[in-house]
């Protein structure tokens, strides 16, 4: 499954990043690498974007961007 | 490399939110200089500090997570390191986020530079139970490590000493990441190949270049093409290796490199950090649970926006009441230094400078508002709430090709009533998404800036007096509706090819901003603004002056006015009679002198409010010229404690009052005639056949065109065009109604809408030039609103006329139309996201 499908308060582990180029590099730079645990904190009031916690810091992505992160639910 | 002056060049690098700017301030204190990196709009701060006999020149690089060539900031930081070759780099790390911050450190080390590691915000880390073994970390990274608390100035001396000793040693940090056997073998062969090329290998660190080629970095490829004779062979080799590696490992080298860096960071953190307690819910989490919640989040956001508006615009405007007298005083001071005025014609070197000074102080008047706004922006940035605003609003704005970060510039520009486009455009700085940033810059001037308000109030008072509230609501909200649609249209057309950026936004922990930091930034930005604006405003107001006052009235007309003046003066002398005691006093040049005395006295009296102030003015003018004083007091004055009634003086007073009225009337007629026959006036008449479709006659054309220098002048110009007959003090609205009998509320609606879409003022355009870095965008920002405003005005006026609508009906119809357009625009599909 992909990261955009994970509900708030659920935790998962990153399997792969499916996009290349600027988006892929940005995600890699921010620590979205395979094996990393990631927790969904909350959706924005209008559902998009969504806030995550990984490696002790918080980051927000749009759902369309989170779709490019493959994960498995923990 | 030391520069000529003997100072040592050091760069300051770090990720966003690492407290890099607090370190910069701590090290350099007040010795700072802000400019832009050449050719781009990113701020470049330089500062310096001395330690013993050495002077260090410190350059603050943009905060970046990485050093790829994908974003402007990263390219700038990288290019600086490669081309300016600083002697050392201070890498600022957020001590409580060590793992992620090390990711940048590794990339810096790869660039063959001596590094100083600064563990910043060590107090926050300790509070969170993170204990860092700095000795171990220093061993791992093979670089000196200093811990600091930037906003409290802790660790300043040790950091300075470390910088100095590292730059003196001049030895590049030898730490290198091992990317694994397969990749290392490839890197080895690439390095070997690159080292055979003397030019490129002396210019750039070859290990770094090899890694970048494996990452498929476009800039690195460009460097190879530029500086290597056998670039084709090298680039082909790199590509083959990349492809082969990807085939074999099912992962691109780019990905493997990033993963290895993160793993290495993790390993180092595990080796050198002791976590005493697991992080429980921090204060930030608890705040965000409310501040970003579904229902309360938007409420808090609206409240914050309202507070910004209230503090900066409303309270800031009140502050201008205190600063205005100072500006007015300086205007009078300058006026007193200029050649004196005449009876009816003022010398060019008086009227032109005064016009320029008036234009300049009209803009300077807003400085208190800027100060507050810039301080508030700094607070929003420093606390971290800015990111939350973008988080909450991104969804709405994205429909129109904007970004969550677009909201602040729009609020500052005047989302509701009253704002200022200048700081609004400036607030777009730091938006990562170039496409959304440009769109925001382009629509901010469509908001309702403070200078547009008096114009609205005037026109609404004229024709919508019964529906003041509704009309004001209409004009202030229609601008947002139109602006959002415009943003989407720009997004689909002229901005189509501009780079958009992923949203990926860090939500930094909340921070209490420091007073010093906020003050510094707000003063810095205000000063930058004042410096830039003044020169341009002066230049442009000279041009507008020439357009509005030249070629001037003809010789015949001039003689006509002079003979009228002569006539009025003769009547004056006839009236007072030859045997009047003051007849001699008024004769010849003395009359002009008395005129000045009279004007000064009247002006001084008008300004004075209290009885005491009025008495003081009397005393001053009495001392200045007692004989004149007798006349301006209508012959009633005190001599040695006795009240005297001087009939002769009273007679002169009465006669002069009549003369003064006549000369004022002549002055007004001359001004009106000058404007009408001026270049601007002729242009206004010339385009009247066209603007008639929008309901504008030449008088309106002149007023609208002259507003270009500064919208503040629109009401003033209308005031000069629609003079009130002497002796009658009608309000401007009434005078306009009197002269424009044929006007309906439809005319006024069209004018108002045109004003709402009015092109940005000169200072804003200048800001657009600075923030977009291009004259083309500045010209676009000037002309598209004219076209848009004209289309809307014609649509409303001609369309309304054809349908036989009243102003009110047309207003409602247009509002509905604009709303429909807005919804349609929102529904148009966005271009595909980054896939």
Structural topology:
The complex is a heterodimer of chains A (74) and B (835).
Chain A (H helix, E strand, L loop, with lengths): L10 E7 L3 H9 L7 E8 L2 E8 L2 E5 L1 H4 L2 E5 L1
Antiparallel strand pairs in A: 1-2, 1-5, 2-3, 3-4
Chain B lengths: L7 E7 L5 H9 L3 E5 L6 E9 L2 E7 L11 H13 L3 E7 L3 H13 L4 E6 L1 H6 L2 E3 L1 H8 L3 E3 L8 H14 L11 H15 L2 H6 L2 H9 L3 H10 L3 H19 L3 H20 E3 L7 H9 L4 H42 L10 H17 L2 H17 L1 H14 L8 H8 L6 H6 L7 H10 L8 H12 L4 H25 L12 E2 L8 H35 L5 H22 L6 H4 L3 H18 L3 H14 L1 H7 L3 E4 L2 E4 L1 H31 L1 H8 L1 H4 L6 H9 L6 H9 L10 H8 L5 H12 L5 H11 L2 H29 L3 H21 L8
Parallel strand pairs in B: 1-4, 1-5, 5-6, 6-8
Antiparallel strand pairs in B: 2-3, 3-4, 7-9, 11-12
Short description:
The complex is a heterodimer of chains A (74) and B (835). Chain A has 74 residues and is α+β, with helices and mostly antiparallel strands.
Task: Describe the protein in words.
Chain B: Pfam families: FeoB_C, FeoB_Cyto, FeoB_N, Gate. Chain B: Keywords: Cell inner membrane, Cell membrane, GTP-binding, Ion transport, Iron, Iron transport, Magnesium, Membrane, Metal-binding, Nucleotide-binding, Transmembrane, Transmembrane helix, Transport. Chain B: This is Ferrous iron transport protein B. The complex is a heterodimer of chains A (about 70) and B (about 850). Chain A is α+β, with helices and mostly antiparallel strands. Chain A has one domain (about 5-75): SH3 type barrels (Roll), CATH 2.30.30.90. Chain A is about 20% helix and about 45% strand. Chain A contains two helices and five strands, in the order βαβββαβ. Chain A has helices spanning about 20-30, 65; strands spanning about 10-15, 35-45, 45-55, 55-60, 70-74. In chain A, strand 2 and strand 3 form a beta hairpin. The model of chain A has no long low-confidence stretch (mean pLDDT about 90). Chain B contains 38 helices and twelve strands. The relative contact order of chain B is 0.06. Chain B is an alpha/beta fold and about 850 residues long. Chain B is elongated. Among the domains of chain B are: about 10-170, 3-Layer(aba) Sandwich (Rossmann fold); about 555-670, no CATH class. The chains are: A alpha+beta (about 70), B alpha/beta (about 850).
């Amino acid at each position: 499954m992909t990261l955009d499908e994970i509900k708030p308060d659920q935790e998962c582990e990153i399997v792969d990043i499916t996009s290349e180029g600027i988006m892929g590099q940005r995600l890699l730079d921010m620590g979205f690498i395979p094996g990393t645990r990631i927790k969904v904190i909350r959706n924005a009031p209008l559902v998009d974007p969504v806030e995550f916690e990984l490696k002790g810091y918080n980051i927000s992505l749009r759902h369309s961007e989170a779709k490019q992160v493959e994960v498995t639910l923990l | 490399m030391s520069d000529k002056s003997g100072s040592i060049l050091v760069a300051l690098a770090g990720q966003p939110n690492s407290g890099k700017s607090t370190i910069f301030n701590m090290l350099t204190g007040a010795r700072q200089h802000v400019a832009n990196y050449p050719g781009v709009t990113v701020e470049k701060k330089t500062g310096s500090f001395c330690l013993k006999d050495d002077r260090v020149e410190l350059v603050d690089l943009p905060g970046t997570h990485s050093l790829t060539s994908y974003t402007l900031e990263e390219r700038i930081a990288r290019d600086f390191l490669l081309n300016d070759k600083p002697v050392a780099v201070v890498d600022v790390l957020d001590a409580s986020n060590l793992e992620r911050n090390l990711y940048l450190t590794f990339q810096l080390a790869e660039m063959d530079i001596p590094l100083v590691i600064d563990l910043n915000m060590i107090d926050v880390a300790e509070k969170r139970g993170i204990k860092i073994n700095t000795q171990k970390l220093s061993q791992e990274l093979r670089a000196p490590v200093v811990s600091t608390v930037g906003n409290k100035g802790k660790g300043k001396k040790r950091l300075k000493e470390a910088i100095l000793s590292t730059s003196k040693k001049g030895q590049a940090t030898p730490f290198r990441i091992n990317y694994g056997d397969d990749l290392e073998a490839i890197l080895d062969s690439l390095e070997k190949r690159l080292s055979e090329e003397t030019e490129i290998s002396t210019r750039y660190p070859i290990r770094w270049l090899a890694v970048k080629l494996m990452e498929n970095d476009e800039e690195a490829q460009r460097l190879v093409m530029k500086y290597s004779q056998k670039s084709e062979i090298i680039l082909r080799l790199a590509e083959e290796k990349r492809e082969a590696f990807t085939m074999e490992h099912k992962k691109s080298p780019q990905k493997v490199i990033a993963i290895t860096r993160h793993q290495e960071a993790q390993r180092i953190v595990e080796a050198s950090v002791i976590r005493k307690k697991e992080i429980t819910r921090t204060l930030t989490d608890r705040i965000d649970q409310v501040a970003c919640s579904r229902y309360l989040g938007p409420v808090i956001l609206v409240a914050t926006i309202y507070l910004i508006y209230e503090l900066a615009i409303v309270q800031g405007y009140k502050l201008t009441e205190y600063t205005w007298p100072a500006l007015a005083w300086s205007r009078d001071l300058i006026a007193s230094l200029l050649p004196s005025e005449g009876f009816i014609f003022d010398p060019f070197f008086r009227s032109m400078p005064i016009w320029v000074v008036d234009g300049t102080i009209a803009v300077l008047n807003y400085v208190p508002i800027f100060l507050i706004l810039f301080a508030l922006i700094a607070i929003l940035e420093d606390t971290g709430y800015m990111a939350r605003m973008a988080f909450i609003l991104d969804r709405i704005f994205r429909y129109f090709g904007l970004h969550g970060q677009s909201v602040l510039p729009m609020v500052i520009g005047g989302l509701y009533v009253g704002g200022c486009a200048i700081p609004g455009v400036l607030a777009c700085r730091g938006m990562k998404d170039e496409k959304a940033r440009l769109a925001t810059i382009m629509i901010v001037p469509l908001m309702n800036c403070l200078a547009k308000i008096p114009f609205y109030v005037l026109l609404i008072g004229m024709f919508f007096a019964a529906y003041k509230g509704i009309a004001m609501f209409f004009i202030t909200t229609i601008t947002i509706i139109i602006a959002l649609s415009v943003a989407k249209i720009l997004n689909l057309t002229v901005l189509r090819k501009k780079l958009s950026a992923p949203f990926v936004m860090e939500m930094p922990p909340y921070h209490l901003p420091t007073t010093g930091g906020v003050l510094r930034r707000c003063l810095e930005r205000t000063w930058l603004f004042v410096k830039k604006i003044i020169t341009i405003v002066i230049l442009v107001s000279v041009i507008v002056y020439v357009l509005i006052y030249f070629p001037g009235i003809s010789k015949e007309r001039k003689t006509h006015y002079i003979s009228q003046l002569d006539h009025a003066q003769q009547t004056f002398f006839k009236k007072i009679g030859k045997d009047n005691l003051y007849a001699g006093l008024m004769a010849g040049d003395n009359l002009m002198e008395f005129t000045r005395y009279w004007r000064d006295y009247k002006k001084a009296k008008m300004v004075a409010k209290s009885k005491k102030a009025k008495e003081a003015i009397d005393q001053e003018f009495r001392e200045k010229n007692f004989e004149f004083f007798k006349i301006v007091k209508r012959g009633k004055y005190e001599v040695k404690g006795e009240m005297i009634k001087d009939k002769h003086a009273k007679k002169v007073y009465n006669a002069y009052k009549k003369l003064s009225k006549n000369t004022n009337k002549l002055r007004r007629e001359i001004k009106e005639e000058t404007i009408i026959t001026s270049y601007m006036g002729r242009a206004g008449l010339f385009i009247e056949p066209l603007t008639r479709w929008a309901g504008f006659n030449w008088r309106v054309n002149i007023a609208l065109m002259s507003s270009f220098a500064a919208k503040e002048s629109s009401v003033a110009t209308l005031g000069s065009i629609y003079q009130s007959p002497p002796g009658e003090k009608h309000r401007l609205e009434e005078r306009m109604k009197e002269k424009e009998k044929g006007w309906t509320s439809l005319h006024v609606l069209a004018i108002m809408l045109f004003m709402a879409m009015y092109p940005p003022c000169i200072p804003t355009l200048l800001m657009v030039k600075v923030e977009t870095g291009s004259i083309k965008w500045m010209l676009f920002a000037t002309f598209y609103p004219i076209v848009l405003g004209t289309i809307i005005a014609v649509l409303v006026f001609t369309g309304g006329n054809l349908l036989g609508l009243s102003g009110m009906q047309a207003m409602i119809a247009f509002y509905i139309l604009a709303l429909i357009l807005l919804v349609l625009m929102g529904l148009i599909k966005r271009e595909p996201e980054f896939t």
